[in-house]
Write a structure and sequence with these properties.
Blueprint: H1 3-8, H2 19-38, E1 45-50, E2 53-59, H3 62-65, H4 72-84, E3 92-98, H5 102-110, E4 115-120, E5 145-147, H6 152-186
Helix pairs in contact: 2-6
């Protein structure tokens, strides 16, 4: 079975020859994910590497930037493209803690990134084999090597912990709102519904 077929079935792929380096760079991507968490963003981080050296980093920031495209991968690609003065980034490997969505997958292909390594699989929006596999789409004019499941447990645990905390804080806020509701009603206040409650674990 080829690498693309394995990814399409959502299985963790066998270690490549540079597995040790992959794990090291994924841990750097996890550090970036922690930066996102500190800002209240879904903790996904990315590191773009060329010839064994970090070229750019990124973490999720769509809320803070009011930008629906500001996923970790896109942030890293923009930084690298600006640094290199070129939107093409051949010979690069992108490490990201969560399987890329369709938007990020196509951006990586447009940038001519050579290889994509991700951590946790995303069963809802993953475009590296979980929902669809754009990296294995033969009709596209560029392809990237794909390797999933690197440090998957650590990457998945970080996301789960984040959403657990969000749910806990959300429940506390709702309980506080309920306690204050009678007083607010007496004062002529109105109840506000919050639309930013976290969804399922791996939504970014």
């Amino acid at each position: 079975m080829d690498r693309e077929s394995e990814a399409d079935q959502g299985h963790e792929l066998p270690d490549p020859p540079d597995a040790r380096a992959d794990r090291a760079f994924m841990r750097l991507a996890l550090d970036q994910a922690q930066n996102a968490w500190l800002l209240g963003e879904v903790p996904v981080g990315a590191v773009l590497v060329r010839e064994g050296r970090v070229l750019a980093t990124g973490y999720n920031r769509p809320v803070g930037d009011s930008d629906p495209t500001a996923h970790a991968e896109i942030v890293a690609l923009r930084q690298a493209a600006s640094l290199m003065g070129n939107y093409r980034l051949p010979g690069c490997t992108l490490y990201v803690t969560l399987e890329p969505c369709a938007m990020c997958a196509m951006a990586l292909l447009h940038a001519r990134v050579q290889r994509v390594v991700f951590g946790a699989f995303d069963p809802k929006t993953g475009a590296g084999g979980s929902v669809l596999n754009l990296f294995a789409e033969s009709r596209l004019n560029h392809h990237a090597q794909l390797h999933g499941g690197v440090e998957a447990a650590a990457c998945g645990a970080l996301l789960q912990e984040f959403f657990r905390e969000r749910r806990r804080l959300g429940a506390q806020a709702r309980a506080g709102d309920a306690d204050a509701a009678p007083q607010s009603a007496a004062q002529g206040g109105i109840e506000v519904s919050h639309l930013d409650q976290p969804g399922e674990e791996f939504d970014d």
